[in-house]
Amino acid sequence: MPGRWFTAASKRRNKAHYAGGALLHRLMSTATRHGPRASGLCRSMGFMSIERSPALFSPLLLTAARGFGHLVREVDNHGFKGDIHALRHKNSASTQRYVAEALASEENIIFCGAYHTGKMTILRAIGEVCEKKGKKVVYVSADSRRACRIDGMLLHHFLGLRYFGKNELPSQDQLEGALGRHARLCESTYASCVPSLVTADVFIFDAVDQVAPTILTSIDRVCRDLRGRPREPFGGLRVFAAADFWHLPVHPSSDTGGYVYQLDNWDELFPRQRLLEKIHGQARRLTSLVNKAYFGLLTPGDIEELEARSATRGLSVEKEDESRGVEDADGSDVDDDEEDGASNESSCGSGRRHSKHESNNNNDKSKESGSLFAGHVASLPPQKLISNVEAIVKFTSRFPKQPAIRVLPPRFRTLKRTEIGNYVVSMLLQSSLLSSFSLVDSLNLDVGSSVHLLLGAPASFGVPPGTVGEVLQVKEHVLVVHFPSVHRTVEVPRMRVSVYHSFYPEVRYEIQQFPLFPRQNISPLNILNYQHAYNVDIDCHRLADTNDLGNILARMRSFDDFSIQRIQDFVRLDGMIHEPTRIYYQRISNRPLSSAAEQWCRNCKSYVPTNEFYSHWNECIRQVRWCSECNTRIPLERLEPHQEKHQIVLCLDCGRAVEWRRWEGHRLTCSAMMREVSPENEFLPLRTRQLALELGLDKRDLHTMRAFSRSLLPKSRKHCSGGSV
């Protein structure tokens, strides 16, 4: 049967199917050379045939290049053709410089930097160069969105782990045992279906900032053991990594230690550490202010400039920003972009060039340096931020008007009965969530709703991502949206994405959703989790977490994309800059801390000579912590029992917040609780009192409480408003 290729069927539970990869490769090579002969061979062995198509055949070519199976994510051309990868500058000059620098040495390297600094593009370009050299490359990310964009797999799937919460990680020994068992399964039962720490030659590791230190330590130890090279980091496995430590899940009361870059052998695991500071697709002056915001170096003049220029919608942009915009439009300076910003900036640049040809006066030149929406943004009021709590309530509607559609494969239960099938199906299911593709799970859009486009589309669509529009009609399968800034009214269909394994293309998970974001739901958390939220009014009183200011500004292309106010109230709050990350970035970039002779150590609350600060910090975070309640240093080994006495609990009977060390006395004297369980309380069930009497329970044992952090306690109005009552 010429022109056909074959894939393993999941109907028969036979040993040939368990072996999977090796047998499939032989059949594929036979099918390519001798179609009719391979057809009979496959039918006799219980394999099914599938018509050849470019969409299905290309993943197998990639599988042959990588040496093992992988996940495939396909966008259906009949729906919205969104760009879910958006890595278009892998061959640019600066990207290739980083690639050559990384491959010139045998040492592992990690690229650090904020959003849009090109980390993922560099990793992908490095992986493609290694694949051309015949090496087995595995692409892994700890973040689901970035795993989709780099066309790889999630870290816990690669390691054979389930999802773990922050406080649910098993012990070090349990982790190492689980990693070792999964690596042996990949070599035997799973064959070449999935890569492992042993079979891979190059490990492309993205989003290291989301990895717990114990997991990275376990990866290193298991690699040293299984690969037979105990003296080399990761057992000789070549690792190229990337991380955005500004995006750590931290808050003002977070600990100063315990982060992955503070591991004892961190410098051994990654001898080369590179900080990327250039934010691609962004005005240069804004990038300078963003980096100052990250490091806590904003001066009153910088704050005044940031608020003033954003309030005037960027009409007084400097000439260097204008030249930067023209360079971006020509594609000569926008290289290794990490997100869709490069295409946006190119579109903006084309608008500028058109404006420049129309007029040569100074006013027109100032408009050229703005974004594509500069003319329309002035007429559109910026969208005000809502709190993260309000956004969560709106996002969890019980009966949404446009819910996401999930289409399950008809044969996944059959595949799950095989030994490898359960693992593959779990991997497919967890990799096909809406959040992995930057889509909203539940939409409530009606006529008149304000939305913006989440993903880039082909040029024929005519609407760049981030464009603000208004819903004109709501149909079953399309939404008619008018985008006034580009003078287009288009029908936006649902985006359809299929996820399947390259060895099992007949088992596909499909999701469908409109690639739109409701503007009324823009919050600080949603700006960080979803792309292209422009034309927003940033009230710094709405910013709640550490590094929020820098992380949000890094996502803006120019001063035209936002207005901001009350920055001073945010930057003067304690803990709004993550001190451990700031110190780490300054150390790897060889940047002086300051010109002062002494530096303040936030960990032990003491002054340290500047020339000794880095060594002091490394020792200090491993020895002591500061207790703000007692105003004293506590040895690290005694910190946990010491903190217990400061734990705040809420009495659910009287509603008072009580310190844990005073809880025993409170529960003996709580008047509300005493009335609750008194014999005179006729509403207390008789059976309850009888059981308590039979079991010998004291009525005080029925007292209830809930533990919570001190940060949840009510704050004064002066503290909440940043000092302005």
CA gyration radius, whole angstroms = 29 Å
**Number of strand segments:** 29
The structural class is alpha/beta
Euclidean distance between termini CA atoms = 81 Å
The fold-level CATH name of the domain at 93-276 is Rossmann fold
Largest sheet: 6 strands, parallel
Proportion of β residues? Answer: 15-25%
Give me the oligomer status: single chain
Describe what is shown at a glance.
The protein is 37% helix and 18% strand.
Structural summary, described in words:
The protein has 725 residues and is α/β, with parallel strands linked by helices. Among the domains are: 1-52, no CATH class; 93-276, Rossmann fold, CATH 3.40.50; 598-639, no CATH class; 645-712, no CATH class. 37% of the residues lie in helices and 18% in strands. Helix 2 (21-33) packs antiparallel against helix 3 and helix 15 (341-358) runs antiparallel to helix 16 (362-368).
Write the layout of secondary structure elements.
Layout: E1 4-7, H1 15-19, H2 21-33, H3 35-44, E2 48-51, H4 54-66, E3 71-75, H5 93-103, E4 109-113, H6 119-132, E5 137-141, H7 144-149, E6 153-154, H8 155-159, H9 172-187, E7 202-206, H10 213-226, E8 238-243, H11 266-269, E9 272-276, H12 284-295, H13 300-311, H14 319-330, H15 341-358, H16 362-368, H17 374-377, E10 383-384, H18 388-395, E11 402-403, E12 405-407, H19 412-416, H20 421-431, E13 442-443, E14 450-453, E15 468-474, E16 478-483, E17 488-493, E18 495-501, E19 504-513, E20 516-518, H21 524-529, E21 536-539, H22 548-553, E22 562-565, H23 567-571, H24 579-588, E23 598-601, E24 606-609, H25 613-620, E25 624-627, E26 632-635, H26 639-644, E27 648-651, E28 657-659, H27 663-669, H28 671-676, H29 686-694, E29 705-708, H30 717-720
Parallel strand pairs: 4-8, 4-9, 5-6, 5-7, 7-8, 10-21, 21-22
Antiparallel strand pairs: 1-2, 3-18, 11-13, 12-19, 14-15, 14-20, 15-16, 16-17, 18-19, 23-24, 25-26, 27-28, 27-29
Helix pairs in contact: 2-3, 5-6, 9-10, 14-15, 15-16
